[in-house]
Amino acid sequence: MVHEQQHLLLNAPVLQSRELVPNPNYELTVGQEFEDVKSCRRALRDAAIALHYEIQTVKSDKSRFTAKCASEGCPWRVHAAKLPGVPTFTIRTINQEHTCGGITHLGHQQASVQWVAKSVEQRLRENPHYKPKEILEDIHKAHGITLSYKQAWRGKERVMAAVRGSFEEEYRLLPQYCDQIKQTNPGSIASVYGNPQDSCFRRLFVSFHASIFGFVNACRPLLGLDRTQLKNKYLGTLLFASGYDGDGALFPLAFGVVDEESDDNWMWFLSELHNLLEVNSEYMPRLTILSNRQKSVVDAVEAYFPTAFHGFCMRHLSDCFQKEFNNTMLVNLLWEAAWALTPVEHEGKILEIAEISLEAANWIRRISPKFWATAYFEGSRFGHLTANIVESLHSWISEASGLPIIQMMECIRRQLMTWFNERRETSTQWTTILVPSVERRVSEALERARSYQVLRANESEFEVISHEGTNMVDIYQRGCSCKGWQLYGIPCAHAVAVLVSCRQNVRRFTESCFTAASYQKTYSQTLHPVPDKALWKESSDDAANPAAEVLLIKPPKSLTPPGRPRKKRVRAEDRGSVKRVVHCSRCNQTGHFRTTCAAPI
Description:
alpha+beta, 21 helices, 16 strands, 15% strand, elongated
């Protein structure tokens, strides 16, 4: 045993971008003690990284640890052994200083994924958006080590897995989570279903009482259906059903998580939605439902909401149209046809499409305009042409979709809880009869109506003459020949001119859902927090009857495929906006450039 204390210092030249200054915090001395062999190995690894040399393990077991310098011929060597009767390890010998000059490359054998995870753990806990690229840069600045992107990514994933917990454990806890939702938010619906054969997860349905109350009692009778693919370990699909509050903001009503998007799962989700509304309404409202043209959704709506007005989402329709014809001018005309308020305006836009491409006009004519065109839609869409739920929620739903299932649902619940509180508090400051957005529209209509001439036919019918032309208004039927009043539920400028001439309060002729009182009722209920899962107990039924069979939920069988998932999604408003029309200088047609022109010479 060596009795003379020795120090490990590195006196090596600067290598590439490294600044090799000995750090006294990483000096190793004879007699230095560690809690166990793992702590000893970690200390030697940290010292090797800090002082820019690599080590090679010679022997490592429960009672001793020996390592040497990885450089051939360097005499550096350290030996540590366990003290008798305790798990403590101590350094027994350290042989000489390094003669190798340190490593001559920018990587490091000891810079393992585990070391990367330990190095960035605190930063990741404070900022989960800390990117692998930033990890690479920070580690290079701090340690002079160049890692691969995969090392940084795996290090981050290891920390995040520890922070957010096990995906598998969260599936197992789903029955208890549903119980917690129903206990903390009475009147809520939370149900989980597994496969009867193997208990693998199939479906989860959640709707909070605050959302149910607000939709049934104060929202527009309008529902949008949408879905997004989950990006977590076991994939799956998140289904949405969302209403719209009086001020035009999304009002999420129900969520479904399914193992895959299929006909059966959409049928199940719509059946749960139907039951929800049937139980919580005195009578089933006649809804307007917006969705894509997917056959499984269309069939489910017809099965469970046969009296509903079903409209197709224009975002989805224009996407299909764009893929088929790849012409921006045609897409813009399609949107203009969808927005047209009268059949004459609509047909005019279709004829413009036909002048450019007869094939495109025939394609759109094969889809009945009653499903997508404002002029022909039988219900009331209140100006909503898209069920753009995912786009509207993209800023936070994209991140949530990669989390374990309970954490994802908690992210959704917290966002809803915050929205309810913020909107409830904001609405208490309003002094107008109507919500702000509708108040502005009525004020603008009042301004335009000043120049209109009103002629009375009888108690309810009027003729309004303006520079735009002549329109007929019936205040008993709440309708105008321009269709604006019927379609939006807000008096158009023609109706406003009539109501003012009759000395009526214009604001009382808007739909009740647009009043500030209805808006406040929409958000009158509170979404309550759910306790941390460490505080959960067995459900009351299981506690009362220990012999009751406990519902076991296993993870679904699907797993994330290799490769980086797509992160960005083009927003609906970008698709529908008017874009610059390109012209080909070779054939003088629109929609492409000369370099991609396929016309014959």
